[in-house]
Amino acid sequence: MSNSNLLDGKAVVVTGAGGGIGRDIALAMAARGARVVVNDIGASLSGEGNDAGPAQQVVEAIRAAGGEAVASTDSVSEAASANAVIQTALDHFGRIDGVVNNAGILRDRFFHKMSVDEWDAVLRVHLYGAFYMSRAAAPHFKAQDGGAFVHMTSTSGLIGNLGQANYSAAKLGVAALSKSIALDMQRFNVRSNCIAPFAWSRMTGSVPADSEEEKQRVERFKQMTPAKIAPLAVALVGDATADVSGQIFAVRNNEIFLISQPRPVRSVHNSDGWTPETVLSQALPALRASFHHLDKSADVFCWDPI
Q: Entry's InterPro entries (predicted)?
């Protein structure tokens, strides 16, 4: 393992760690001294199936490099099984210091065609999963006066994307959840931050690419390996970032961004109050110049990865 002791003595759970971004985060955590619970149910992107293999393979890779790790195949989408993931850390390592909420599935569909099941499945893994995992760890963080959450959000939610209403809603919800955790638990020295990752993985590999523009974007995505996300995740779990909480970052190849959070842009005032007519004749015309465009993530991050 690396000589760096950045995370020595810490126990960290990484969900969805059987492959892609989660795998590289788990390996990087272990390389910096953390003992890692590698959580992955071994399911397909649509959430089907159960295979202990992916998690166990990552555990074996960590152990082969001299680190400590244990596999967990419990689902994050139910409260009881999420508690079991945290309990795995307590049983094997005696503590829990960091939780990386990375597990995810996709069921992309244009909104007017999206089924209730497609909506519910994605919300349960991403948003409910982040809540269940965080809630399970929170009492332990409070008792030991410290801990760190790292949640994976997405520019699909922060900015927008086509055919991903379920995923976008969940990921913007994760950002709000993270901020609330940061506010509620700051008195206990608990931090909560988000990362919006740009990386080519099994999940992004399923994003539809019908137009030439979308195909070109996919080719750019392939340059952005999951390993590029791991350094920031490691840093956010370590004690050196004790003063970093409630933030939203993005990682895109070799770039790290701090993402803005919603704030008032412009206001109009009418001392007589508003009527629908004056809203139409005064308020909306005054505000229109500051309206946000119907941007997609690719419209905002439109340059090639650096």
A: KR_dom (IPR057326), NAD(P)-bd_dom_sf (IPR036291), Peroxisomal_Beta-Oxidation (IPR051687), Sc_DH/Rdtase_CS (IPR020904), SDR_fam (IPR002347)
